[in-house]
Amino acid sequence: MTSTEKMILGLGVGLAVGAALGILYAPEKGKETRRKISDGFDHYREKVMDAFDTLKHKAGSKAEEIAQKISEEVTEKVAKANSK
Description:
mainly alpha; 2 helices
């Protein structure tokens, strides 16, 4: 796990815990509090999953870029070797 992924995960967990604690200390009925906690976790889970999807997409794009460069270099070296 990269440091960026760790940071995003930590941020998501921190936000979820903070939201849950804030809701727990609010003076409301237990059923309403549990619903708010559940909604809060769902909201932050979606944000974290979106962040991971973005990172996965960027990593995939970078991997494709690197694979293309390697392919070009190999093709160039094979062409040089065949011309000798």
